[in-house]
Each structure stands twice: as structure tokens, then as C-alpha cells.
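Recall from the previous lesson that a structure prediction takes nothing but the amino acid sequence as input. Here we apply that procedure to L-lactate dehydrogenase from Amycolatopsis samaneae. The sequence below is the only information supplied.
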Amino acid sequence: MPQLFPAHSAPHGTKVAIVGAGAVGSTIAYACQIHGVAHTIALYDIDAAKVRAQVLDLQHGSMFTPTTSILGGDDVGVCADADVVVITAGAKQRPGQSRMELAEANVAMCRALVPRLLEVAPEAILLPVTNPVDVITHAILTISGLPARRVVGSGTVLDSSRLRSLIAERAGVGVPSVRAYIAGEHGDSAVPLWSGAFIGSVPVAGWTVDGTPTFTRTVREDIARTVTNAAYEVIAGKGATNYAVGLAVAYVLDAIIGDQRLILPVSSLVRDFHGIDGVCLSLPRLVGRTGAGAIEPASPSDGELVSLRASAGQIGKVCAELRL
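The prediction returns the following C-alpha cells.
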């Protein structure tokens, strides 16, 4: 997963719709505009004044970005015929609140919203960002009845970027030289896949400076805690995370719209992966124009599998409580 993607003009006729014109939704739109992810970006929000203001603000920067049509409104029809619909609407995470505590209210929101979206954009891939994203991904899959490949949660793409950034900083290399993934829940039970983490061609665990191992078990545990707590720290300081998640989701959208067939840790339905079955969580998998594809043929360590099964169990428990 390279760090950067080039700005370009998207193919004519491509459209991304974003539900929710708050901090996250508007930042996703901004990132998509800067990078020319789609020819048309549509914002939908029930707050007519807010969505109009966001659209105007984006339109006023059009001179400085690839050619993109920006539109929006408080009518769901603005999402008509979108290739991908990004869902950011819902109750927001409060300081100290876990993502799972948001589940009931946001699942109820999805029950009302998803059928309306599919009426106007029946061929769209749905990309939930709303937390808890793994539960919401499962809920949308259940509510919509769509094939699993067409419901692609943002998952741990952002978490993996955080992990790579911390590894690169400690190793003294550029972030694109690091290949590492966070898997499982986008939340407290997230699992760093250290067994498949590399700096260049060197396993992270084998990276040394002057013969001294850099990434000891203690260091790896500290990095994992920092990744897991990162959102809480940002939310405590400014009330929401938006810049990094905006870039992360734009990156996923670019992979889908441009059929880039990238390996990304998105949240999607898992079937028979080392005993994990019937739950949506993040694993590195192929992402392209048809949505979420095959899981990367990797073998996590025994300890990682134990943690992944525990993470899947937590997600599954919430889904069962919500009758999903």
C-alpha cells in the first residue's frame, strides 16, 4: 500500500456520493477533489444549510484541482447513479466512548437510510465509514441484501497507515518503504500483523541498527497501543478525526473507481478464514472496481490468529445483540 497516489482527472461519468456533510464527509470530498478521484462528487445531508455551505466552499477551490463537478443537497436523489456511496452519517464518538457503544443508534440509522440509497443508486458499491465500522458494514450487508463484495467498510486502512508511520519513524525510513497491516476490528481489539510486516525486504522483527534489534517485543507492544489509542487522543484534543480518515477513504475510493486492484485492509464479510466465519472485519484483500475481492493468501502467526478470533468474537457478539 504505497503512501501516495497521484492527482489525475477521473474518467468522465464516474461519481462518488458521500452521505453526511460533517467533518469526515466534507474532508473525504475535499481529498477526492484534490486527487481527482471521480468526475462528480455529491454530498447528501439532511442539514440543507450545512451541505450548501460545504458544496460552495469546495466549488470555490475548483481552479486549483483536477476538473471535478461538486454538487449536493438535502434530497437523497443527489446520490443518483453513484458508482460508490460513502456513508459517514450517524452519531459521533464522544471523548472516552468506545466505537462499539455507538452501534445501536447507527444501525437504526442504516435501517432507514440504506433502502433509500439503493433506490437511487442500485448499482453502487456501499462504503461505510460510520463507527463501529465493522458492525455497520455487517448491518448494511444484511439490510441491503447485496453481494458481500459490494459492501466495503473503511476498516483498518487508516490504522495501518498509523502503524506504518510509527514503524517508519522509529526505523528512520520513509513510510512507503514499510509494508505492515492492522487487521480485525477497527477499534480496541485491532491486531497488528507483525509476522507479515517488512521494512524493504527485511522483516520488522529483524530490523537492526548497529547490530541492535530496533523492534523488540516491548517496542512492538508500545506501537500497537499507540495505534489503538490514536483516535481517542485526536478526539479528546479536537473533537473528531477527519484529515487522515479523509485521505484514507479517498485512497480506497481511488482503488475502486480506478480498478487499481490494490491489497488493502478493508472490512468485508469473512468466510472460513482460519476458523473465522460470518463476520465483517478487516483483512488485507484485493480491492478494485467490483469491490472487495479475495483475501491476501497470507498465514498469520498462531498468536495473531488467537487475537483475530477474539476480535471477530467481539464484533460478532455486538451483531448478535443487534439481531444482525
